[in-house]
Amino acid sequence: MKGMELSKQYFKEYGLSMLEEKFPDLMPMLAAGLTGSGSECFGFDDEISQDHDFEPGFCIFLPGEISKDVTHFVKSDDKLKVSIDLEKNYKKLKFQLQREYDKLPAEYMGFKRPKLQPVGGNRRGVMHIEDFFKGKCGSPDGNLDVYGWLSVPEYSLAEAVNGEIFLDNLGLVTSIREKLSAYPHDIRLKKLAGYLLIMAQAGQYNYGRCVDRGESAAAQMSVYKFVEAGMHVIFLLNRKYMPYYKWSFKALKTLDRLGNMYDSLEFLISSDNDGKRANTKLEMIEDMAALIIRELKADGVTDAVCNDLEKHAYSVNDHIKDGNLRNLDIFSGV
């Protein structure tokens, strides 16, 4: 069974009724779902995934502080029934929520909930909304400035918006996830420009030179850099975040635009660099560059007329509307 379905059924059978019966006054503020770290949050889990950190569990999200900010997300006055006493006992309530969560069945459909938390902290159970998003993107409410967007790791943004929210009575979790769902247009272009330039330098320039010098290891490093940057470009063209490296190829297969490059990219990094093979790789690099350029033109973000990815990188950068962002170093987003 896939982890998402396991989590959803467990929540419907045990979690929801526990929240409704034990915490009726808190229900208007609560959200629950499965999101964050773990292959099951991306739908990439399999039998191998079940050997660690795989459990019938879910996340319960609670606003970190009961404040005026919360009321912006409440649709009607009677939806948020929070008394002064409730505010005073907020930390106690969080503890009580976790205690009741821990009392839920430890085994479900043949899967057990581990007694020890996975490396990296608690991935399931009760957590503050603000703490979760601050941990993923550095902002408790999902509001990022230019430097925030440029600096947060892409895989971390992917973990902030993956999975599924089963319940969101306040709407706050959903609202923040929507803010973080994709890069703003100019940020996307800045990142595209940087990765395109890496592709040009590593694949169209350095790879062939390393091969000519007989430096096989350096050649393989160059082709790896080309592939990694190329994958980032493909995800950006699809307006998706590239997940953690071990899931990046699996996620690539799911993309509508250029997802069919999977086999070519895998070949580039898994084959050697002898004479004939190196020539084949060079031809593949140029073919892949042409396909990416075609998509850039379809998006209207490059005016260059050539197969040189470096020229297209600078052309993409020139299409950034924000002058301050445009004038930053072209690698500032990678």
What's the arrangement of secondary structure elements?
Blueprint: H1 3-22, E1 31-34, E2 59-62, H2 68-71, H3 84-88, H4 90-102, E3 107-108, E4 111-112, E5 125-128, H5 129-137, H6 146-151, H7 154-161, E6 164-168, H8 172-179, H9 185-212, H10 216-237, H11 245-252, H12 262-270, H13 275-298, H14 309-318, H15 323-326
Helix pairs in contact: 5-7, 9-10, 9-13, 9-14, 10-12, 10-13
SSE topology string:
HEEHHHEEEHHHEHHHHHHHH
Radius of gyration: 24 Å
Globally, the shape reads elongated
Tally of domains: 2
Mean pLDDT: 89
What share of the residues lie within helices? 40-55%
What is the number of strand segments? 6
Q: Which structural class best describes the helix and strand composition?
A: alpha+beta
Specify the biggest β-sheet: 4 strands, mixed
Range of strand content: 5-15%
Features:
alpha+beta, four-stranded mixed sheet, 6 strands, two-stranded antiparallel sheet, 334 residues, 53% helix
Description:
- The chain folds into 2 domains: 3-179, no CATH class; 185-326.
- Helices cover 53% and strands 6% of the residues.
- The chain is built from 15 helices and 6 strands.
- The protein has helices at residues 3-22, 68-71, 84-88, 90-102, 129-137, 146-151, 154-161, 172-179, 185-212, 216-237, 245-252, 262-270, 275-298, 309-318, 323-326, and strands spanning 31-34, 59-62, 107-108, 111-112, 125-128, 164-168.
- Helix 9 runs antiparallel to helix 10 and helix 9 (185-212) packs antiparallel against helix 14.
- The radius of gyration is 24 Å and the shape is elongated.
- It starts with a helix and ends in an 8-residue tail after the last helix.
